[in-house]
Batch of 2 targets.
Target 1
Amino acid sequence: MRKSITLYGMTFSLPMAIWQVMFFLAPLVFLIALSFWSVKNFRMEPDFNPDNWTRVLGRAVFWQAYLRTVILSAVAAMVASVLAFPCSYGIAFKLSPTARRWAIFMMVIPFFTSYLVRVYSWQIFLSDNGIINAALARVGLGPFPMLNSDFGVMVGYLTLCFPLVVLLQLFSLIFVDRTLIEAAHNLQCGRLRTVFEVVMPSAKVGLVIAALFCFILTFGDFVSPLYLGGGDPPTLSILITDTTKSGQQWPRAAVIALTMIATLLCVAFAAVSYAYRERGR
Amino acid sequence: MSPHNRNQWIDWGLKLYILLSFAFIFAPIAASFVFSLNVDRFPSMPLGGFSTIWYEAVYADPLVWEGLRNTLVTGVVVSLTATAIGFGAAYTDFRYRFFGKPVYLALALLPPTIPVVILGLAMLAFLANIRLSGEIYSVIIAHVVMCAPFAMAIIRLRLSQMDPSLEAAAWNLGASEWMAMRHVIVPFCRPAIFAALFITMAVSFDEFAVAWFVSGLHETLPVKVLGFLQGQVSPRINVIGTFVFLVSMTLVVLAQLLLMKRSAAPKAAGKVE
Amino acid sequence: MSTEALVVFDGVIKKFGQFLAVERVDFEIRKGEFLAIMGSSGCGKTTTLRMLAGLEAPTEGEIRLAGKRINDLPTWQRDTPMVWQSLALFPFLTVRENVEFSLRMRKIEKAERQRRVDEWLERMQITEFADRNVAHLSGGQRQRVALARSLVTEPEILLLDEPLSALDAHLKVRMQTVLSNLQRELGITFVYVTHSQSEAFSMADRVVIMSRGRIEQIGNPQEIYRAPRTKFVAEFLGSSNIFSGQVTTAGNGMIRIATPAGEFDAVSGAAKALGKGDKATFVVSDDRIQLSNQRPETGNALRASVVGEEFVGATAVVHLENPAGGLELKAQKSHEELEHLDLSPGAQVWLSWRPEAAHILPGE
């Protein structure tokens, strides 16, 4: 209650501030500086050189990758949102409280399983002589190439973010006022129309945020596009890992990373302002 | 909604859809478990036969053991550090109002929203520049950044369930700020503190991207898995996946149990001396 | 009870940023008294109590406890235990451990702690619950634990912040008895903050009435009830027959006041200093008003129209209004007294009262 800063208060508040300034904020700021450094004889030198920016942004390969990444993530956000909605709606409105608690618990489990192992598993399912094609061959179908395609990338992206999208949608659906739904029925709004005209607008914030998180997660993922999509043409995150691990072109990787951050900030800002925009004045 | 407004067909349809969703989520997890016990190198249907040879192969691989050791060291140090820092930040948010608090909270909570490739690159470049990269402690530094927000969120949630006059009541009964911290705040948060320890450890256990960037030669187990993924097909991934899954699930279930027993018997939680 | 001051509030002001929570209070709390601080929410009563406990620091002025300035004394170094509105029992400790808490904080040795905890558990009749979780107790039992926890250090003063507000009516009355008996037996000072008039008036030796960060009146319950000092106090106590106007004549212990509803006589009493032309306000309590169909020959009288009737057990309260005077009026009568009157809404009746029944508010 005292206004003055006490040793006691500092003991608890400062560690987080110091750690995140030193090891979270500083690296991100350093990334900006790094993007202007120059590389000579495979060595990086501090510099103020816009060369990396013009080189990277001047190449068609970069813009192809950029477009591909944005489209893939946007499609993933839409597909995940559409596929997750019936699931989260069912959990929120059709399950008993006990079943709902279990469903939520089950949805949390994937966060603590290795994403890599799950991607590897999908390779087993999707490869040309994998489980699915073997099953289809028995009834005389296929083989359908599913690995190393955009379909494979989508499966990987859904593996990554489907549970999160369901949970985020779920938490906004649970808090939709049930009397609003009864009022809609009472005003002769049909079952399906009530979902579209009452439930979804009421849960708008959660639905938009869920799609946004799906976009952010897939935008930065390099595992699915590489191991399920084949990595060719590359996405931005594959470009970053390639550029980083092959030699000392870190400044160029920094340029790509900063473009990604700028894109994400724009998308996040647009999504959040759309989510919280209110009708009327 | 009252029962008579329900349509049985829609209800069952949605429930079936929920089951299918879970099938999609758990199919790869279950498959990796099943194939880890399958004798064939190249997984296919029908199954080749039960075998533990891949477990033996993994057990005999010194590289796996080294990775596991790195993972464990990282996980333990990260969970202790991240929980301590997260607790401080949660308490700060609970108790104090100060200029610049939104910035403080943003710093404390934003790291999980930054894509891991970007975080990994930034960490690698920054830590290399100050000669801290390529060691186990590089992974630890990076993982604490990523895990502290989770610890903070879990403990903050617990603090919001606390009667705000509890701390003032302790002062009023003669406890100094430090004593009230020790005898009231910490005991109240104890389940959340343990939950945060387990959850952050589980997050660190599974994290591969940032670790891949900064670990150098000191690879953790998930980074090794990433290496296997680049190489030839090997059921060893399934074995390691099954193992990591069991460890993580144990931690999560423990955390869940702790968070569930809210006002458990004070005998267990309340003996302060 | 003595008249010696234990606590003195000396020109105390409390601001939260721009908001003036306590405008300026000067009063004393006497050693061994049961003092109630009463007012509606936001009047500054709780802030006043929290300043005494050291949970808020006064912006200006001085608080003295036993003659010593305590403004800057941290709350944990004052022995001013408080019973909280939420009770603030530690949910992770047993009943015994809750009661023991302040003894442990004061580093009292174990055997002595044991002895004093046992004594207080016994005294509050909660020995059988000693090892229970506080969450599993009833409201009344929790109340006793909170009291024992605060009193176990045997302090000179106990602060209570609306401790009974969560209880049902029956338990409330029972706990009121427990509190008054306890205070009398221990002989220590109780400072009791409440918004409930019945709690304050049934337990307290003296009552402080606060409004908008200021003290409106201090006195014993009978005094305040019979002679409210200001219009606020009169309204707060539920009097509705409040008349404001100007003095036309004064003398011989009588005073005549012209109001928009007519001229009325009153006994000057406490307001001897009033002279011609002064503003004056008086109240007439609702049980001292007579109702009749015709204008009575003597005394003050006023015509009003009936708004409605409210049954309160053996009596009825008739609500009336006099639009010309801007007055809302009430009369409380037994059912027999009302039999011969037409009390349908809109009906006209005469109100009358004797000059002695009018109390002039000295603070207006």
Target 2
Amino acid sequence: MKCPECDATITPPKDVMEGEIITCPDCGASFELAKGSSGFELKPAQTVGEDWGQ
Amino acid sequence: MSSGLSILYDTIRWEEKSLFDAAKKTGVNVEMVDCKNLFVSLDKTKEKFETVIQRCVSYYRSLHSTAALEGKGVNVINSLNTSIFAGNKLFTHMLLQKYGVPTPFSAVAFSEEAALETLESKGYPMVLKPTIGSWGRMIALLKDHDSAEGIMESRERMYPIYQVYYLEEFVQRPPRDIRAIMIGDKVVAAIYRYSGDGQWKTNMALGGKAEECKITKEMEDICIKVKNAVQGQIVGVDLMESKEKGLVVHEVNNTTEYKNTVRVTGVDIPALMIDYALKSRK
């Protein structure tokens, strides 16, 4: 997969799941894995929300 | 065959992935449900879910999806009551008081002026916390009148929840607090969380470091009271070692994180959570 930000190659782990956050090893941008028509696609990850927590 | 068990998430972190893996290891088929794709008809139609482990990282998404599903008869862990009680530090504090759980001294004021008066009468320093919030966000140490006034003035321009001035004693303690994980009636693991460099807050999200903490009878007794107070099933209890009062509880987490607890204690918390959820099925 190509990083939409810097075009570096991103290799998701073998057991990757939809919704998982992947970080580009080159530019550090974070993406969420979404299922598209041709397998997994990268979409920009939501930045930390004001109400995020535990 | 379906186990009737679902994990409701909005972001897959280590915690959610490990829950899925733990279920898989025991041959249990769990459904991973992205809350962002969830649509719930708020009527009397039957919901397809049976038991749901609530894992949304967004507080409002978690609270409202729990309300919708539980309202339709789904067994949600934790329950709506726990989400409401543990999601608000003031609500939690009042319940802990009622159940005889030791806590830091806290006070609430509903205007900047009243908060400043409280601080003058109780003395500095005190900690100003939003009643709703996590990961140490917007928590401020008020050291003197000038800093308190400046911080509260900025809060006056924010969303109204930030004008509920929840003030907590700045507890004299070692540079650490304790996170105890409760599953059902048992404390299954506990860690010390040490402040990160240049920090007084101990949140792991702020770079704190973790170390195993021995579970004592005192800690377990307190945590059981806490669990009962918030009607919790799987909760993270945050305690401080007050030099004056001994163990005090300052927070309860209803979608607790446990990555660092598993890492330093070796306790298989995800497997214990799956086991608990399966046993709780109706």
